[in-house]
Every structure is written in structure tokens, then in C-alpha cells.
Design a protein that fits this description.
Helix content: 25-40%
Number of helices: 2
Strand content: 5-15%
Oligomer: single chain
Order of helices and strands: HEEEEEH
Number of strands: 5
Structural class: alpha/beta
Amino acid sequence: MMRRLLAILLAVCGLAGAGAAVDPNPEPVNPSALMGNWARRQLPVLKDGDVMRGINLSQATPGTLLKNLAGKKITFERCNLVNVRIDRAWTVKRCNVAQVVIPPEPTEKERLIEERDRCVAERVELAAKITELQEKIDALP
């Protein structure tokens, strides 16, 4: 079990070299030992009865299907499932299941237009303040 988990961690971290030994009969992975950030990465195969606790599976696009699901009766507890399409057969307990559209970064032109508009608004406020002060000055003897 520990050898299989170590092999997965080495592969995920990119530390498994070309000469790394591959176990011909790997032990099944205990998904509950896979805590951490699995966002936008491929999970090990999950089977019926597997329980995932405290992992991040968030995706960039709403309604994303998770891959490597050999089973349907999987339990997720206290997981981040943002933008993951939730299967009705799953048991989901105290997880974040929000579907969120992440806006793209503004283009250079959009950024410059936004900055210009902010400067115009500040200039209008400043002009109003100058007018107000001038009226107070004019009202004094």
C-alpha cells in the first residue's frame, strides 16, 4: 500500500525517473489517503465504496465531469467540488459544490479603458470639489 502511494506521489511530483521500478502488481490505492489538491489533475481510479475526505477537486469550467470513476457509489466528505458535475449516485457531505464562471483576464485595451474611466471619474469628483471650494471663497467678504 505504501509503495503504491509513494509511486503515485513521485509521479505527481515528477520525481519518478525513467529508470524507476514499476510494480507489476500494484496494491489498490486508498483514496482517503489522497488528501490534498487534485484540482485539474487526474485522480487515481475510484471504485464503489471509496470515500474521499478533505480533497480539492475544483475545476476551471462549470459542469466538468471527473475522470477515472470506475464506480458510482463514491462518498465525498468536506471536499472542494467547485465546478464538478455531481453524480446522483454519489454521497456528498459538507462539500463546496458551487458552479462558478471564472471571468477571463482583461485584455490590455480593456484594462486601459477601465483605467481611463477611473481617471475621468476622479477628475469629475475633483472638479466638483474645486467648484464647491470656489463658491465658499466667493461667499466670504
